[in-house]
Each structure stands twice: as structure tokens, then as C-alpha cells.
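Query form — protein Alkylhydroperoxidase AhpD family core domain-containing protein

QUESTION: What is the three-dimensional structure of this chain?
INPUT:
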Amino acid sequence: MSSVNIGKQHPTVYKGLVKLDAEVKSALDLAGVDPLLVELVKIRVSQLNGCAFCLRMHTRDSLAKGEKADRLAVVAAWWEAQYFSDQERAAFALAEQVTGLAVPERRTWDDGSLTEDQVSAITWLAIVMNAWNRVAITSHYPVAP
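ANSWER: The C-alpha cells for Alkylhydroperoxidase AhpD family core domain-containing protein are given below.
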């Protein structure tokens, strides 16, 4: 067997993930997380997971929302670049912690630049983005020019 599109194989489960994604978007909106930061976090999580499908989609989405190519070019090395605010850096570090589940737990993101609502919403964003990456990768979604 080559691959199975798990979303098509179990559409009810896939629809549940779509619903969770919508709930996370609402939480992000209520927490006041900038939509561009949401896309940047999705990109960073997708970089860590090696998900080409999601990288292409969220790079395009961020460009459509007004993100600059220079900032996108350095997301993979955000800690070295001076392009990002303290809040964006904290969000990247938090998303990386959730994605990597470092032990012992690192809290390098906890510099006070994120509210409790934002920490929760961005944590959920990283969780759901990790799930989407795994769906796309294991289902071998095509990524062609």
C-alpha cells in the first residue's frame, strides 16, 4: 500500500479536526493574537515538522495578509533575526516547546510579553497545527509547482 488519505478514509474524524481548528481560531481572535503572527507560528511549526504542504499554504496565506518576504525568509532562524517583536519571539519559542515537548520543560518564551489568554490560544494553535501537519504528511498530500 502506498499511502492512505486519512481525511478521506475517516471523514468524521477529519471534520472534528476542522471544528477544533475553528475553535482555536476563535480563541486566537478573542486573545487578540495578530493574524500575521498566527500564520508565522503555523509556518514555524510546519518547518519543524517538515510539512511542505502546510508550509506552502501558510506562506501564501501570510503573503496575502501582508507579511513581508524578508521576515518569512528568516522564520526558520527567528532567534538570530531582529525582524521579530518580543511577543512574536515568545510565540515562536512557545510553539517550538509544544511541538518538541522538551524535557525538562523549557520556558524561554515566558518573558511576560504574552497574556495568559494568548499563551493558551497559541498553545492550542501549535497543537492543532501539529495535527494538521501529521494529516498532510502521513496522507502524502501532493506539493507540486
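ADDITIONAL NOTE: The CA atoms of residues 44 and 75 lie 7 Å apart.
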